[in-house]
Amino acid sequence: MTLGKKTGLLTLAEDAGLEVDVLNGRPGVYTARYTPGTDEDRYKKLLSELQGITEEKRTAHFRAIITIYDPENDKVRICEGIYEGRIALEPKGSKGFGYDPVFYNIELGKTNAEMTIEEKNQVSHRGKALRKAKEILRQDFL
What we know:
The chain is of the alpha+beta class.
């Protein structure tokens, strides 16, 4: 909102995080800063914290929030996308980034890092939130 108020321009902001149920929602807002180092360091820390946790208890989801601020009427619209899955026992795949090698899509039977970009865009939290934001922008601003 601050940037939108200063510039007078329509403003979008986005943030996303991984929430693991058995870890009470961690890493959550700290997803990108869960531990210093690389993406691999972060998902390895996650895997170590889940050591001994059975597959069925490794439920998790990615949550993305996109906000659209309209300075003309001081209105904020919120678009949320949630992508359900679970944390795999070990990393698989070489595509993507972040936690993709360990985030397992139950319906497709593979990790995000094993998916094509088209598959990932269809199921991802950001894709879902972006489609909602696109609809708001189309309806209210075009």
